[in-house]
């Protein structure tokens, strides 16, 4: 059994006159064959926070609002385990106009390119069960269901892959959030502090539309 956890950083807005619009959009996959690892990582991480008297805003870890020390600690703990990381980076200034007007199609395309790359690398045996878990990205239930249906239809020739959407409280998704944040910081803010921690576990790191 293998597990793939997906998270994203940045946005798919294209109005660069807005301060909060990102220049890059990043999708990251966290790959593991041991679903029990995150319980250990997260438990020890929150014990470490308590010992350090570091407060976080909730019991769900979101990198964009946590301290640099906390992010580094979680990343360091994660890469000590048997995991692999894949990231696809979208430079939005290279996106064709028709995709800019169809953001959900663009999102699906980005995710699918990375899934195809994963399959190409033959990380799993032919009959191995693979659970692909994405974080809920919309409050609109229909949009989540449409995304899930797209993935199932697109990869119906790979019946060993099961596609699931879960809330961000999922422990592995919290860890995937930190990994994706590390890659995003490298491209969006030219800050490779966090990326340097996880670099040795990067299996694929590629730009779309190069």
Proportion of strand residues: 15-25%
Percent helix: 40-55%
Q: Low-confidence parts lasting 5 or more residues at pLDDT below 50? A: none
How would you name the oligomeric state of the polypeptide chains in this document?
A: single chain
Provide the residue-averaged pLDDT.
87
Strand order of the largest sheet: 5-4-1-2-3-6
- Main sheet properties: 6 strands, mixed
- Gross morphology is globular
Order of helices and strands: EEHHEHHEHEHHE
Give me the secondary-structure category: alpha/beta
Over all CA atoms, what is the radius of gyration?
17 Å
The helix tally amounts to 7
How many beta-strand runs?
6
Cα distance, first to last residue?
34 Å
General description of the model:
With 210 residues, this protein is of the alpha/beta class. It has helices at residues 37-52, 68-79, 97-100, 103-120, 141-154, 171-188, 193-198; strands at residues 2-10, 24-32, 83-91, 130-135, 161-166, 202-208. The longest helix has 18 residues, at 103-120. The protein is globular and about 50 Å long.
């Amino acid at each position: 059994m293998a597990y793939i956890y997906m998270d994203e950083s940045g946005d798919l807005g294209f109005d660069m006159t807005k301060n909060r619009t990102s220049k890059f959009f990043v999708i990251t996959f966290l790959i593991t064959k041991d679903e029990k690892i995150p319980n250990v990582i997260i438990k020890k991480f929150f014990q470490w926070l308590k010992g350090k008297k570091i407060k976080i805003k909730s019991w769900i870890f979101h990198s964009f609002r946590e301290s640099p020390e906390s992010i580094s600690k979680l990343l360091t703990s994660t890469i000590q385990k048997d995991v692999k990381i894949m990231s696809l980076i979208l430079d939005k200034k290279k996106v064709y106009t028709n995709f800019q007007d169809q953001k959900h199609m663009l999102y699906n395309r980005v995710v699918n390119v990375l899934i195809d790359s994963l399959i190409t690398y033959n990380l799993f045996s032919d009959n191995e069960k693979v659970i692909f878990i994405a974080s809920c990205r919309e409050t609109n239930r229909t949009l989540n269901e449409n995304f899930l249906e797209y993935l199932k239809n697109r990869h119906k020739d790979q019946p060993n892959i099961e596609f699931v959407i879960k809330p961000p409280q999922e422990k592995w998704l919290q860890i995937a959030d930190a990994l994706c944040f590390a890659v995003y910081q490298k491209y969006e803010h030219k800050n490779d502090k966090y990326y340097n921690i996880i670099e040795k576990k990067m299996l694929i790191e590629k730009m779309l539309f190069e």
